[in-house]
Write a structure and sequence with these properties.
The chain is α/β, with parallel strands linked by helices. The strands form two sheets. Strands 2-1-3-4 form a four-stranded parallel beta sheet, sandwiched between helices. Strands 6-5-7-8 form a four-stranded parallel beta sheet, with helices on both faces. Helix 3 packs across helix 4 and helix 5 packs across helix 6.
Length: 218
C-alpha cells in the first residue's frame, strides 16, 4: 500500500487534499501531520523564520522515520523551507503549489497571484517567477491581497470572506492572462466564480496530480 505523509499548517487544508488523494490515488494510506501554530508564527514574524523551518524539518524527518513513500507539503507559506529539507530527508517531497506555478508560467505572460495573507502571497510570487525562469519565459506578476477576507474568516464570517475573495478574483482576472490562487483553502471558490475570462488555477488538484506522477502510479 502506498503511504503518503501530508504536512499541514492548519486544519483547513486537510479535507480538500484528502479528497484529491482519494480521487487520484485511490487506496493510498494518508498520514496527516498538522501543526496549526505554524502559520500564526509565520504571520507574526512576517516571514518564514529559522524556528519554523526547523519544525518543518522535524515533521518531515518524522514522516521519513515512518517509512512513508512520499511527503506532500500542503502550505505555500512554508514551501521555501522544503528546499533545505530536501538536503537532509531522502524521502521524495512534493510541494502542493509547484505544479500550479509551472502551469501558470506556461500559459500566460501576465500572471495574477491572489491571497488573503502576505506570508502566502510573497513565496507564491517567488515560486511563479522561479518556474518562469526555469521555462525560459518572461512574466509579469500582479500581486493582490483580498483585503478584509482573512479578518472576516477569523471573526467567523465565512460568507463575507468568500464574497470578498470572489470579487477580488473576478477583478484581477480582468487584468491578467491567468489567476493563481495562493492558498489551498481558496480552491473551493472556483466553482462559485461563474464566467471568468481567464483560467483560475488552484493547487489541490494539480498538486496531488504531481504527487501521483512522482509516485509513478497510473
Amino acid at each position: 500500500m502506498t503511504t503518503i505523509a501530508v504536512v499541514h499548517t492548519g486544519l483547513v487544508t486537510v479535507q480538500p487534499i484528502k479528497e484529491q488523494i482519494s480521487e487520484q490515488i485511490p487506496g493510498a494510506r494518508v498520514i496527516n501531520i498538522v501543526d496549526d501554530s505554524v502559520l500564526a508564527d509565520v504571520r507574526a514574524a512576517g516571514h518564514l523564520t529559522p524556528e519554523v523551518t526547523s519544525r518543518i524539518h522535524s515533521y518531515m524527518a518524522n514522516a521519513q522515520a515512518m517509512h512513508v513513500d512520499i511527503i506532500l507539503n500542503a502550505c505555500s507559506s512554508v514551501g521555501e523551507a522544503v528546499d533545505s529539507v530536501r538536503q537532509f530527508v531522502t524521502t521524495p517531497i512534493v510541494k502542493i503549489d509547484e505544479a500550479m506555478a509551472e502551469e501558470a508560467s506556461s500559459v500566460g505572460h501576465r500572471i495574477g497571484v491572489i491571497a488573503t495573507v502576505s506570508t502566502t502571497l510573497e513565496p507564491t510570487v517567488r515560486l511563479v517567477k522561479k518556474k518562469a525562469d526555469e521555462l525560459g519565459r518572461t512574466v509579469e506578476v500582479t500581486e493582490r491581497i483580498a483585503e478584509g477576507a482573512f479578518e472576516a474568516l477569523i471573526s467567523g464570517d465565512g460568507a463575507r470572506h468568500d464574497e470578498i475573495l470572489k470579487r477580488a478574483i473576478s477583478t484581477l482576472a480582468e487584468q491578467v492572462d491567468v489567476v493563481v490562487l495562493a492558498q489551498v483553502s481558496m480552491a473551493r471558490l472556483v466553482p462559485q466564480l461563474g464566467a471568468v475570462r481567464v483560467p483560475v488555477l488552484s493547487s489541490p488538484r494539480s498538486g496531488v496530480a504531481a504527487l501521483k506522477r512522482a509516485l509513478g502510479t497510473t
